[in-house]
Structures are given as C-alpha cells and as structure tokens.
Amino acid sequence: MDSPSTPATADFSSTPPKRTKIVLLGDQSVGKTSLIHQIHATIGIDFLSKTMYLEDRTVRLQLWDTAGQERFRSLIPSYIRDSSVAIVVYDITNRQSFLSTSKWIDDVRSERGNDVIIVLVGNKADLSDKRQVTVEEATSKSTQMNIMFMETSAKAGHNVKSLFKKIALSLPGMEKEGQADAQNTKIDVTTQQAAAVPEASQCNC
Ligand code: GDP
Fold first, then answer.
1. Which residues of the chain carry a pLDDT beneath 50?
2. Which residue owns the Cα nearest ligand 1 atom 18?
3. Which pTM value belongs to this model?
4. Residue 182 Cα to ligand 1 middle (Å)
C-alpha cells in the first residue's frame, strides 16, 4: 500500500503524475461505498491507489474516503472544489434518489462550472424488478444536462470497470498533452457517504 505522505507510482517516468480527483456524490444508501468496494474487487485497487492500464494510456486511480451524512453537508463544496470528475449516483429502485441528482449536479456546477466531467450513475441495476427509474428517463436527463450516464451494479460488479474506463478516456487534454502525461495521470476518488470517519480520511494523500 502506498504511504499516505509519499504516494508511490508504478511507473517512474520523469514526468510527474497528473492528479485527477473524482468525487462520488448521491443520497444515502444509493451504493457509493459499495461502488468503491467493487472498484477494489474489479480493478484490484488497494485502499489508496492503483495504476489502471487502458489500451492507449495508463491512469493512476487514487481513492480516499470521507464522512458524509447531512450534518457534513457544509463540507461537500470543499470536496467538489478541486475535483475534475463527479460521479453522481442514484439507486434505480429509489425514485427520490434520482430526483435528488439534480441537486447534486447543481452543487457540482456551482462549484466547478463546465470545468468538470459529470457522470450520472444509476446503481443497483441488478434489481430491475423493483426499478423506479427507466434507462430512457435517465438518458434523457443526462443529454439535457450534458453529462454522461451509465447504469451499474455494485453488487454484481456490472459496469464498474467500464465506468472508470469511460471516465479515464474522457479526461480532457489526454491526447493533446502527449504520451508522457497520458501515462502518468492520477485519479483520486472521494466519496461523500454515510459513515463514521473512516481510516482513509485520515491520510493526507
Ligand atoms: P451509500 O450510503 O451510498 O454509501 O450506500 P452503500 O454502499 O452503503 O449501500 C447501501 C445498501 O445498498 C447496502 O445494503 C448495499 O449492500 C446495497 N447495495 C449497494 N449497491 C448495490 C447494488 O448494486 N445492488 C444491490 N442489490 N444492492 C446494492
């Protein structure tokens, strides 16, 4: 595992790794923590970081956890502020959590304007018999809001790797900045979730 104070990199190019922070947002219980765990299971990241090898580039996925719940809501803008990517999660079996995504997206836009990649993620796709939000409706919302959309199942491990691949491929400037940068991109993932302060939030990575 990487040391929190001196994050290790798998490739030792002379170009410093470019850091890309991803924040996970969404109502309580939509599956943010489970998605993070599934990233671990699917991509094989350790708790702090993992290099992800894509066809034409290598990205560094870096993960940390923060405490959530309403009482921490005042902290959310600071999580969003330096993020390049926001994953806004809802539960396809919970219509209210889908409606809440508008609020989360507004929060991201008010902090980051258009300078951010937003992905709307409908999680719990394995529970299709209890579905309260159609793919068509979510697709339409994502088109309207000019963001990406994908359904996942953290439980079944469905589309989790694809989600991060899609994000990595859509990072701006990857082609323009050349091979060295492309091989040294760091992605930090922060989740705003309901939990006591977990150990990883104590790291300063
Ligand atoms: P968070 O509050 O957004 O971090 O949500 P959690 O990750 O704690 O998940 C809330 C509940 O939903 C837990 O009981 C999870 O096991 C369950 N859950 C999360 N993702 C999925 C999924 O893709 N499918 C199903 N069936 N359950 C899920």
1. 1-13, 16-17, 44-48, 63-71, 174-184, 192-205
2. 31
3. 0.73
4. 33
Burial 120-152, CB ≥16 within 10 A → b, else e:
bbbbbbbbeeeeebeeeebeebbeebebbbbbb
Q: What is the pLDDT of residues 55-84, one digit of tens each?
A: 555 555 554 444 344 445 566 676 677 778
Torsion sign (Cα): 173, 175, 181, 185: positive
**In a mutational test of the pocket of ligand 1, which residue from 29, 36, 66 has the highest number of ligand atoms less than 8 Å from its CB?**
29
Report whether residue 30 contacts ligand 1, using a CB cutoff of 6 Å.
yes
Measuring CA to CA, which residue among 133, 82, 108, 83 is closest to residue 26?
Answer: 108
Return the residue whose CA atom lies nearest to atom 24 of ligand 1: 124
Asked whether 63 and 45 are in contact (CB, 8 A), the reply is yes
Instruction: Say what the alpha-carbon torsion angle 64, 83, 80, 37 is, to the nearest 10 degrees.
Output: -30
